[in-house]
Design a protein that fits this description.
Low-confidence stretches: 1-5
Shape: globular
Distance between the termini: 24 Å
Strand content: 25-35%
Radius of gyration: 13 Å
Strand order of the largest sheet: 2-1-5-6-7
Helix content: 25-40%
Number of strands: 7
Number of helices: 3
């Protein structure tokens, strides 16, 4: 294993996504943290947003941040949070295409699932 906090063997760049998503979540005490990597290797992080007038899922917001920064495709993504939270991959899939991995991890960084678009 390349990541001591993972039940899955992750490449270094994928382990970095989990670490970034975990750090974002911890920094704001959000329900979920997410990170995505674009076609140029740039990463974007986000957390779940819950306001009276706005609700955004962490992965959707990370995708939106990538798009607003000029990303045209995504290579991978990661979401950290409770396992019982359903992650909608629609926005991610639209930019990532088929067979792009999204790593799902517990708050401690342990990856418990890998979903592909």
């Amino acid at each position: 294993m390349t990541d001591s906090h993972s039940a899955f063997e992750l490449e270094a760049e994928d382990a970095k996504l989990v670490t970034l998503a975990r750090a974002s979540r911890a920094r704001t005490s959000a329900v979920q943290g997410a990170a995505v990597r674009d076609q140029d290797g740039r990463t974007y992080t986000a957390t779940t947003v819950r306001l009276e007038t706005l609700e955004l899922e962490a992965l959707d917001l990370a995708v939106a941040m990538a798009v607003s920064s000029g990303a045209t495709s995504l290579e991978a993504g990661a979401v950290v949070g409770p396992e019982d939270r359903i992650v909608n991959l629609d926005a991610f899939r639209e930019l990532a295409g088929e067979e792009t991995p999204v790593f799902s991890a517990h708050p401690d960084g342990t990856v418990h699932a890998v979903k592909h678009t």
